[in-house]
Amino acid sequence: MKRILVVLLVVVALLSFSKTKLTFWGFMMNDEHAKKVLEKFMAENPDIEVEYVQLSWANGFDKIVTAIAGGEDLDVVELGNTWVANFAERNALESMDIFYKNYGKDYVGWNTVYYQGSYWAVPWLLGTRALFYNLELFEKAGLDPDNPPKTWEELYVAAKKINELSDDIYGFGMPAGENYSPWQQWFLPAVWGTGGDIITEDGKRALLTSCKVKETAEFYKALSEVSLKTKQADLAKAFGEGKIGLYVSGAWDIDYLETNYPETPFNVVFIPKPAAWYGTHASFAGAEVLAIMKHSKHKKEAQKLVEFLIRPDIAMEVAMIWPAIFPSHVDAGNDPWFEDHPMHKVFYEQNKYAKPVPSIPAWPKVQAVLTEAIEKIILQDADIDTTHFEYNMKIQKILDGEE
């Protein structure tokens, strides 16, 4: 009996010892959620053990950079899509072209992970922006709540009428005073809606002085005159308090508003496009993407983990932790959950119009300059042509590697 027990213990020890240990660094899941999800994976793959490390958006980028520089063993890492080009340029990521070949038709968002001819991650969870509008303020302003703005002109007219209701009510909420939201929520997507951009596709030439960027800036400046201009979180609060008629934000504000301002009636629709006959309902494409690190010693097992995490049922389980981003699988919208959450479904469908930022390593520097230019126009009433000329040169220097 003792001999059998010893043999069993040896077998268990050998099995335990033979497990491949993967490291998975991520942002979306906390330790509790990760445990539930990864236990399912390990049950399906008993020869693989996964160690999860939760990162924060405040310092996660720097931690990954430090780990790479220090030669730390990393296998699978969740990245924000705006980081992909940066890490690909560092030669830190394994090509995921095989995933695109095998799964390309079943998933959307591949444009968020493409850089210099290859796919460097797999789109996992997608998030974008849409237009929130206050039903009660629409009625008070003589607007039809069942016919929300679909174009820039319709939005401006609606915002102007709401702005005229009272001195403490604003037609629109325009983000300002922080790093990302001034360009991310709508200004740059509005440029995309015209078919324009602020840099060329090859990332070599700045386009801030182009006609389409000027067209967007002129609209945005006019809209700013009937807008409350402050930080994004303050806009959400003001909207909940009935002080803003319309603003652009992410799906996270649905739950925020319903929880904190249950008496405020609102709805969500697509981002307006430039005109009924022109442009698209473009929005910012945010994405949580999964990358396998170049120096991973367990790439085969890492691929299994990525394949598991992008499965529609698993991705939906993760997305429901914080329903502001949704699975990238093309059939995810058929999940019964959306039947009871029609406003969230708008965001899922808005994703088909979403566009990622230019895929260049220098984007973090470019976006900072873009924010400065936007705020100079909407906060300081600066001349558009002069501002665009000045900041176009700044962006060009960044693209040329001079800054």
TrEMBL record:
One of its GO terms (biological process) is maltose transport. It comes from the Bacteria. InterPro entries: SBP. It holds the Pfam family SBP_bac_1. One of its GO terms (molecular function) is maltose binding. Keywords: Signal, Transport. Belongs to the bacterial solute-binding protein 1 family. PANTHER family: MALTOSE-BINDING PERIPLASMIC PROTEIN, MALTOSE_MALTODEXTRIN-BINDING PERIPLASMIC PROTEIN. This is Extracellular solute-binding protein, family 1, putative.
